[in-house]
Amino acid sequence: MPQRFKPSPLTPPTARSWRIHYRSTTADGRPNVVSGTVIVPPGRRTGPRPLLTYAVGTVGLADQCAPSRTFPTGRTREGTLVQQALDRGWAVAVTDYEGLGTPGVHTYTVGRSAGHAVLDAARAALRLPEAGLAADAPIGVMGYSQGGQASSWAAELHASYAPELRVRGIATGGVPQDLLAVAAHNEGRAGSGLVVMAAIGQDAAFPELALDRYLNARGRLQRRIAENQCVELASGTWPFGRFDAITHTNPLTRPDWVRRLDQSRLGRTAPQAPVFLYHGSADTLIPYWSGTGLRDEWRSRGADVTFTTLPLKHVPGAYGGAPLAMAWLADRFRTGTGASGGTSGR
User: Are residues 141 and 55 in contact, defined by beta-carbon separation less than 8 angstroms?
Assistant: First the structure.
């Protein structure tokens, strides 16, 4: 049974909220269990209530950081963005992703696993009797940063993995298209701690990578910190670091690591639903070329991509882009069609 909890101060006071556990699929195709949250705002609607399956950005690897743990106390970092969807009368499903809030280590940055979790959160919400959602409810997908990777993977997997879902559109921003390229960009920069977290996430999904075999004493300490803290400490305790300072041999250069990281690369499959893709031109964490590269690859494969440039850095881009993304999704819900936008935008 889903666990009902009192909504946080950020949600409408009469909204109904549940913490759920649902079946999903690992990157290698094995069944797993993922936790998440479903929130339904008050009020009646004409026609099926839209459902937004929302993928949060990086919160950390520790279970206490999971959105389903922080929603009841109002500490969910993107709670104000989720509230924008609730204010529009949409139901929202928020996945915790694999291994975050459930046993095991969070498979941070493993794209296929995250895409499965986002799509299966929508399936779970539709099948939750208490939520009262129609089986044919129009669905939107949204996420930024880690959530941008997850929502983009959901876009690429939708047709093959969850074709029954009536996805009207995907709004995705700050997307790390190529993990190896983004890791190289962050070597010695402020985002170096996130690269360590990503290595831990890949190792959690693919134990044969044997990350511990490469770590020195400082690396093992950083791993313990990352696995037990939320993102502020997990990444902030190793800023401007270089991978060779925490390893005997840099695993990111090894063929098995390169192969697994390349499996999370986006752009090889065109989303069937239309996409609103946005990225900050001043983003120094996930550089602008990551967003334009994904745009170009999707368009070359025939995808319907509306691209928007934001004159912002990474974190401000999440908040600056959200109202535009929500308005675009609202239009997809209102018209009932995805054929809008095409190759517009810069």
Answer: yes
